[in-house]
Amino acid sequence: MDDDVAGRPVEAPRAFDLARAEAAVRELLLAVGEDPERDGLRDTPARVARAYAEMFAGLGRDPRDVLTTTFDEGHEEMVLVKDIPVYSQCEHHLLPFHGMAHVAYIPAKDGRIAGLSKLARLVDLYARRPQVQERMTTQIADALVEVLGAAGVIVVVECEHLCMSMRGVRAPGSRTVTSAVRGQMRNPATRAEAMSLIRPR
Ligand SMILES: Nc1nc2c(ncn2[C@@H]2O[C@H](COP(=O)(O)OP(=O)(O)OP(=O)(O)O)[C@@H](O)[C@H]2O)c(=O)[nH]1
Ligand SMILES: [Zn+2]
């Protein structure tokens, strides 16, 4: 057992079981009435297993391994990285949701800032899991507070959920917007400034 950023116990990272995933995909093909031995499908179970290993590579990974490179710049103003691509999967249907994340933070009083790419890596770490968009948004914000010590954070995520587009309600083009706001970013003027940078009129 390890601890997560808030000190709660989390399971140690588990190695992805490729053989098990491959067997499951083969079963699924049989269940839908396909022939997994036919030429075009012969390598599909192994291929899909490898794809899932990649798409769920964020499981069991720790934000502390991502927010590694920080700089003492004495910068106490807002930093925003916007339009970070998000590719995740909803845990209800295991179908993709994808779109953009916008991450802004106000550094701690000592002005410690993160390498910019680390914000995109953080989004990726939480996206590569079976997810719910609301939880992913919260996790990104909490990691910036708890690991980087940010004095304020706002995370806005806007995604299209394919479970709502290609099946079910069939509302293609609908987008879900979620946000998480922490610390000094709750100040209405600061929050408004962040939102105007994220969504210029
Ligand atoms: N809040 C939230 N809901 C999600 C997310 N991704 C998928 N869902 C929803 O999860 C719900 C699952 O509902 P169920 O009624 O159990 O499943 P379902 O019969 O397949 O539902 P429909 O999609 O309405 O056909 C659906 O309303 C999805 O739109 C997400 O990231 N956040
Ligand atoms: Zn879904």
Automatic annotation (TrEMBL):
EC no. given is 3.5.4.16
One of the entry's Gene Ontology molecular-function terms is: GTP cyclohydrolase I activity
Q: Which UniProt keywords apply?
A: GTP-binding, Hydrolase, Metal-binding, Nucleotide-binding, One-carbon metabolism, Zinc
Biochemical pathway: Cofactor biosynthesis; 7,8-dihydroneopterin triphosphate biosynthesis; 7,8-dihydroneopterin triphosphate from GTP: step 1/1
Which part of the chain is the GTP cyclohydrolase I domain? 22-199
Q: Give the reaction(s) catalysed.
A: GTP + H2O = 7,8-dihydroneopterin 3'-triphosphate + formate + H(+)
User: Has the keyword Hydrolase been applied to this entry?
Assistant: yes
Q: Which family does it belong to?
A: Belongs to the GTP cyclohydrolase I family.
Please state what the protein is called.
GTP cyclohydrolase 1
According to the entry, what is the taxonomic lineage of the organism? Bacteria, Bacillati, Actinomycetota, Actinomycetes, Micrococcales
- Please name the gene that encodes this protein: folE
